[in-house]
Amino acid sequence: MGIYFDFVDKVRFEGPGSKNPFAFKFYDRDRAVLGKTMREHLPFALAWWHSLVNSGTDMFGAATADKSFGAVPGTMEHACARVDAGFEFMQKLGIEYFCFHDVDLVPEDDDINVTNARLDRITDYISKKMKSTGIKCLWGTANMFSNPHFMNGAGSTNSAAVYCFAAAQVKKALDCTVKLGGRGYVFWGGREGYETLLNTDIQFELENIAALMKMAVVYGRSIGFTGDFYIEPKPKEPMKHQYDFDAATAAAFLRYYGLEKDFKLNIEANHATLAGHTFQHELRIAAINGMLGSIDANQGDTLLGWDTDHFPFDVYEATMCLYEVLKAGGLTGGFNFDAKNRRPSCTPEDLFHGFILGMDTFALGLLKAAEIIEDGRVDTFLKKRYASFESGIGARIRRGEITLEELAAEAAKLKEPPPPGSGCQEYLESIINSILFR
Ligand code: XLS
Ligand code: CA
Ligand code: CA
To answer: Helical H runs in 232-347?
Structure first.
C-alpha cells in the first residue's frame, strides 16, 4: 500500500487554541459528554463518492482535483488504489465508517455480469482492509440514477426491463452491504420523480417503487441483513419533483405501503433546506415517527437552489441537530459526510480540511447541545407552555376521555379563554446564543 497523504501523520485533538491546520480543535474522541464518548455519539462516515471519486467536474468545467491515486482511471487497479487511499485517509482522521454506492467501488461495465464480478473482487479487498484497520461500513446503496437507462427512473421507470436492472443492482448492492457488515441500506430516490404529469402515472410509479422496496426487504432479510433500510428524502434535483419530498412524505409513504417496520429515514441537512424546512425540523419529524435512523451531515447554501453538499460549518445548525439526536436517544446509523470540497479546493490537503471542519463542527454542536439540555431553561419553558394539558379538562383531552359536546360546554362556561401566554421566542433564542458564545 502506497502512502497517499504523506503530509500528515495522524490528525489529533489539540484544542480550540490550536493553529495547526491538521489538528482537531473540538473533536476530542474520548471526551465524555452526557455519559458517552464523543466517538460513540458521533459515528462519522466517509462518503466514497465525494471523497474518493468526485474530482470537481461540474456542468461548466472539467476536473480540478486529481483522484487517480497513481492509477489509470477506469481500471480495477484504480479501484484498489482508491481503497488504499480511502483507508489511509480514514485511519489518519480516525473516521470509523464509510458509505458507498455500487458504482463508486468499481468501474461499471456495459454487461452487468462483469460489473458484479468486479464488485466481488473489490469487496474481498475491502473486507481485508476492514479486518486489519477495524474500520466498518455504515451503509451501502445502489446508484440507480447515473446510467442513461435509468433516465425515466429505476423503481418508477416505465420499462419493465429497466425495472429488472434496478432490482439486480439493489440485490447486488445488498449482497455487498451484507458482506461488508453494513449497518444500513439506503434508498435515495435518484430519478424517482417526474417532470410533467402529461407523461406520468404517479400512483403506478409509487406502487412499483414500494414493490421494489418490499422485495429488497424480503431478500435482505433472507441473506442475513439485520440493519435498517433507509429512505433519504429530497424534494427535487435531479427531477423537478422527487417522490420522497421530505421526512413527512417519506414516513407517510412507508406507512401506507406497510414498510415502516423495516425502514427508517436518512436525513440530509442540504435536502431539508431544499424542501423549505430546517434540518432540525426534518430530524424532529423523523424522530416523532420513530424513524430517525441516520444523518447525511452536510450543509447547503440558502442563496442557491440546489444541492451543494458543503462540508458543514454552521455551528448553530449542528447544535440543533445534536439537540434533536440527543433528545431522540441517538442514532441507529451515523453521521455520513455526504459533502464535497468546493471546486477550487482541489488538493489532498483540502480533503483533510473539509473533514476536520465537519468533524469539529459536529463535535462543537454536540458540546453545545449537551449544554442546552443541562442548562434546562429551554426544556422547562417547553413543558410549562403546555401545562394546561396536565390536569383538569386538559388532561382529559390528552387521555382521549372527552367529547366535543363537553368541550363546547366548557367554552360556554368560560365565555372567553384566558390568554394562552407568550411564546417567548426572543428570550429562548437569546438563551441559545448565550450558550453558543460563552
Ligand atoms: C444525492 C444524495 C445521494 C445519496 C446516496 O443528492 O445525497 O448522494 O446520499 O445516493
Ligand atoms: Ca445524501
Ligand atoms: Ca445531497
So the answer is: 247-256, 269-274, 279-288, 315-327
- Inter-CA distances, 318 with 29, 293, 298, 385, 387, Å: 17, 17, 10, 25, 30
Which grid coordinates belong to 435? Answer: 450558550
> Measuring from atom 10 of ligand 1, which residue has the nearest CA?
188
How many angstroms separate the CA atoms of 262 and 255, rounded? 11
Rounded to an integer, what distance in angstroms lies between the CA atom of residue 80 and that of residue 86?
Answer: 10
Q: What residues in the chain have per-residue pLDDT under 70?
A: 1-2
Cβ atoms 166, 154 nearer than 8 A? yes
Q: Which of 53, 308, 338, 340 to mutate to test the pocket of ligand 1 (most atoms within 8 A of CB)?
A: 338
Q: Which of 98, 188, 230 most suits a substitution to test ligand 1, by most atoms within 8 Å of the C-beta?
A: 188
Residue 38 CB neighbour total at 10 angstroms:
22
Q: Is 96 in the pocket of ligand 1 (CB under 6 A)?
A: no
What gap in Å lies between CA 423 and CA 412, rounded to an integer? 26
- Specify the ligand 1 atom closest to the Cα of 234: 6
Quote the ligand 3 centre to 152 CA distance (angstroms): 20
Q: Which part of the chain is CATH 3.20.20.150?
A: 33-369
Distance 99 CA to ligand 2 centre (A): 10
Protein residue with least CA distance to atom 6, ligand 1: 307
- Residue range 33-369, CATH number: 3.20.20.150
- Virtual torsion, Cα 5, 7, 11, 13, nearest 10 deg: -170
CA distances to 394, 396, 397, 400 from 407, rounded to whole Å, are 10, 10, 9, 12
How many other C-beta atoms are found inside a 10 Å radius of the C-beta of residue 152? 16
Whether omega before 235 lies within 30 degrees of 0, making that bond cis, reads: no
Say yes or no: CB of residue 232 within 6 Å of ligand 1: yes
Task: Provide the CB-side half-sphere exposure for 266 (13 A, CA).
Answer: 26
- pLDDT of 2: 64
